[in-house]
Amino acid sequence: MFELKFVTPSAWTDVVMEKFDFFLQDHAAAEKKAASMAISMLSHYQDKSKLVRAMTDLAIEELIHFKQVLKLLSARDIKTANDYKDLYIKELRALFRHERQHVLMDRLIIAGIIEARGFERFSMVAEALPAGKDKDLYDTIAKSEAKHKDLFIELAYEYCDKDEVDARLEELLIAEAAICAKLPFNGALH
What we know:
- The protein is mainly α.
- The chain has one domain (12-182): Ferritin, core subunit, four-helix bundle (Ferritin, Up-down Bundle).
- It is built from 7 helices and no strands.
- Helix 2 packs antiparallel against helix 3 (49-75), helix 3 (49-75) packs antiparallel against helix 6 (133-159) and helix 5 crosses helix 7.
- The longest helix is centred in the middle third of the chain and has 29 residues, at 100-128.
């Protein structure tokens, strides 16, 4: 449906593979936060039945992903880590407009962009992993992220003017590319 404007370099994957235990901890935290975000959205927009159904399904799926990553951590005898503020997410959230008529649109578009970045990076992780269960899991998670990115934009089209969504999506994709270009590679998802 849309393409990111920043392509993550393979050097990111190299760092992730070197710090894979840390990556798994960060990934688990990201899945937990994604489930929480979906629950928050369905709670805030109870009058939008299509969104409520979609966010309910999404929250369940993200918790399943969390459980799957938790199994990977347990198999390596690694504990989950304390959540920390993700600079990528923080900078994207700073782009939210706070006027009532724009809040839902921005939340949906930014969520779609985050899912698109997840699709790209989980695909890179899957490609870097050797054949086996871990690779299969990351292939599956990447495919889910691709569906989620489209879901959020479809919901934005459902509840907002399509031309406004397209214009705002373009603005936010440019801003997200600038954010990604300046963030260091530390082994985290973002």
